[in-house]
Amino acid sequence: MPQSLSFLLVHIVFSTKDRVPCLGPSVRPDLQAYLATVIRNAGCECYRVGGVSDHVHLAVRLSRTITVAQLLEQSKTSSSTWLKTQASELSQFAWQNGYGAFSVGPTDLEALRHYIDNQEEHHRTRTFQEEYRAFLKRYGVEFDERYVWD
């Protein structure tokens, strides 16, 4: 086969370090735009970025030349450095070490966009930890509670 082709749609989720709720409404839109730009600069398509004060969700079509781990290392490192310059209260900002990445079929892209767009409403009744545990269960990912949170 002379060409390498792919369509890898991934729902990525990660939190602030210790789930500190420091991503307020004043910084969140710029952070989301920044993350989308970093992802696009890595050769991936970013369909949506959203979240609330303690975590973000991304809908990303991966390029065939980058791994999820590479993309997240670039995105988290770059955005963390950028966030630290945005306000004095963010000078010690850090993302959690890990992340969740879940495969999504192309026919579910609109539902994923809707889910990400409605994070504020969703998190009125569910914490990040509850949401994340539900994703792990839904996708059959075994985990040890002692090592999921940092």
How would you portray this structure in words?
- With 150 residues, the protein is of the alpha+beta class.
- It has six helices and four strands, in the order βαββαβαααα.
- The chain has a four-stranded antiparallel beta sheet, sandwiched between helices.
- A hairpin with a 2-residue loop joins β2 (45-52) and β3 (55-62).
- α1 (28-41) crosses α2.
- It is globular.
- It starts with 7 loop residues before the first strand and ends with a helix.
Helix/strand layout:
Layout (H helix, E strand, L loop, with lengths): L7 E8 L12 H14 L3 E8 L2 E8 L5 H16 L16 E5 L4 H9 L1 H4 L5 H11 L6 H4 L2
Antiparallel strand pairs: 1-3, 1-4, 2-3
Helix pairs in contact: 1-2
The count of DSSP E runs of length 2 or more, i.e. the number of strands, is 4
Which structural category fits the helices and strands? alpha+beta
> What is the helix content?
25-40%
Task: Enumerate the spans where pLDDT stays under 50 for 5 or more consecutive residues.
Answer: none
Number of discrete helical segments: 6
Overall shape: it is: globular
Summarize the biggest pleated sheet: 4 strands, antiparallel
- The Rg value, from CA coordinates, equals 15 Å
Order of H and E elements: EHEEHEHHHH
Strand order of the largest sheet: 2-3-1-4
First-to-last CA distance: 44 Å
Q: Which whole number gives the mean pLDDT?
A: 94
Report the β-strand fraction as a percent range: 15-25%
